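Work through this protein:
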Amino acid sequence: MAVYRVLRTAKATLTRTFYLDEVATDASGTVGVAVTREDGTVVQSATILAPDANHGYSFTFQGSDDLDRLNLTWVATVGGDAIVLDQDVIEVVGGFFLGLGDIRNNIDPVFKDQNRYPTTDLIERRIEVENEFERICEQAFVPRFEREILSGPRSGPVRLKWPRLRRVRAISVGGVAYLPGALTAYGADPLGLLRHPSGWPAGTGNVIVEYEHGLDRPPTDIVRAFKLRMKSFLLTSKSPLPDRAERIATTEIGLVQLAIAGRDQTGIPEVDAALSRWLTPRPSFG
């Protein structure tokens, strides 16, 4: 599964290589590509006639005016078998923690070496760190999209997965979609609570909500922590002193005591201190 994060309105070239027994293999005939929303709506499609010199099939995603999460499906015949690969995801986002140019030029001089640190590695590590920060803090630091299937409560608001609700894009209850004018009743909410003017109909999985959430941009201390975490990932096993070192105790043989990474911490003291200042705005009860 590949995850591609693309800025809103930006185009992106995506490439897929098919393998048989770990050998890159050309498809028999053309390769079909389809981009669909999570509700099944097809938004883009294309037919690729031939691979490049490295057996890769390239598709240019034409961009999206809205934040979204899209499924990317490749259809081909390889080695005589028809295959469908539908696990790739395109996330259309409102920003990144840091641009690729800043990662190369403003974290460590060694990252300027594109042979040692190819762009694909920087992109993968950036997604990994962004996901880690948002998982630990339980909130997004740039505008993102979410689609949820929820159960209507008997009373009170619906609690969304993510706080810092920015805009509700779509609601359907019991299979009936709300008209655009009705969505104006649902405004931004820092706790991610969605209140129905007359109460949500009770049910199981009867409410589908599409919404945008997150901060406008990452705070400066989160960006600084992001740089440290990126450096720790990219320089793994290249530094004599791990970033998780809390203190050094000198003995006859020497000792380095390390902080322990866990579900809610990276193990890097300065990074974890920054994350602790930006935990979810939701209270820890209820």
Observations:
- Residues 1-93 form a domain with the Immunoglobulin-like fold (CATH 2.60.40.10).
